[in-house]
Fold:
Amino acid sequence: MVSLSDYLILSSIIFCIGLAGIFINRTNIITLLMCVELILVAVNTNFIAFSHFLGNEAGQIFVFFILTVAAAEVAIGLAILTLLFRVRGSIDVDVTNSLKG
Amino acid sequence: MNNMYTFDTSTLWAALPEIFLLSAIVVVLLLDLFLTKPFKQVTYYLTQLSLLITAILAFNLIGEPKTIIFSGSFVLDNMASIFKVFMAGSTMVALVYTRHYLTEHKLFRGEYFVLVLLSMLGMMVMVSGYSLLTLYLGLEILSLSLYTLIAIARERAGAIEAALKYFVLGAIASGLLLYGMSMIYGISGSINITDIATFADNSTLASREMLILNFGLVFLVIGIAFKLGAVPFHMWVPDVYQGAPTSVTMFLSTVPKIAAVAMLVRILVDGMGAMHDYWSDLFMVMALLSIALGSVVALMQTNIKRMLAYSTISHIGFILLGFVTGVVEGYGAAVFYVLVYILMSMAAFGMIILLNKQGFEADKISDFKGLSKHSPWFALMMLAIMLSMAGVPPFIGFYAKLFILQQVISAGFITIAVIAVVFAVISSYYYLQVVKSMYFEDSDNEITITAPMDMKLILSINAVLILVVGLFPDFWMKLSISIF
Structure:
């Protein structure tokens, strides 16, 4: 029997991989998008696990909304990336440095 | 519990402003497709009309008793209605300034207005959200529209870069916020703010439950701080302000702040009010860091948009201080500060847009050189705005700072108040630098003001209000306290 804490540990590991990926990754923006997805997957796992063990559907409904929003988010992210490629000719993180800071 | 999930159409009136705005967005979006080039202005006027009607609908709901509908996920109270009226009003003002900017920079497209309306809808949902789900959805409607708005200047590398940075950091922030929400849901068993409040208020919580609640709380605070742009989660603010088209900067630096503060109130004050001791410590650190960093780093900026970005960060610090106090008067002072900040920031960015001309962004402080000779009236307005931001009486910005500091001192945090005042004094240096450029330096290139009459008029009213409201701050302060 898989217990609640197993799910939570799994999701926190995924969450940390996502966060670490964002901060360590200095080359490709597509990887950033994948890391953001990982964070959302961790959240979804959390919600579903809690929902199952609490016997309360609200968490599962929440997950449907997160999935939808994540799809919209990635669509917009990729659209911005295409624009960036058009003006800069590259999607490396290094090219996004014209604004200092 | 059984009838918790029933759908009752007789309660829909409470969401009337949102429902109307959503239908108006659909109409504007569809109509814009059929308008040919010479009639594009129709989109603008329709947008203004829909915002006006939304504001009137929200205004009519002021004074209604607190109503919670949609299975506890949507609330109508005075705070929601008053905020909605303010947001619709300031968006209308922002659009008046925006129209001039868009025509000068050939960005006049129907999508722009639809996106502004959509972000407005998102903010209204955030203000009225009473469950973690509605708050999150409102936040995402707002954020997704803002990412797109920034990227609307398709050929400008700076704008695209700003959009990308805002997108990546915004996505991380909502990820963190969601992680916090999942923890809160897991421990309290509900996503409704009412149930969470009851749960957090329970004094018999085991220390293990307290720990998880705290763990979730930290993530929620980080997510909210990201949206507000408080240090250490401020990295996106200067870059986005500088890179985005000025009209978008103006919009995203003003109205969404009300929504972010509303979300803060809903989650932390309404929901986790019992945990105030825990989150106020976090807020205190963030507030002091924001005030310090915002005041000091702005000294070195030559780009006025970037300077205003750091000034925003320090204003956010003051707003957070209001929440540290943990009393209703303190929260009221914070809300008052937000409204005042919006009035000032809107006017400051309006002034930058005023100096814009075809293909030229007046975003350097040096672009203000010699303004007093060319247009003494607008130089005077800019003087009022800058002095108000610096916190000089009798302008409204002074009272905003005063009320916050009063509450901070009466809550017993005298050291913090002193530090805040010291940095406020330091920050007046860069505000006065703009004044110096306007009055004591000659312009390098010709200043031409091409703005239409309506923009000049609204901008003047906006700037005069900074002085007039400053003469009667008590009414607004009472209003701000009354919403809690």
Q: What stands out?
A: Helices of chain A lie at 4-24, 29-54, 58-88.
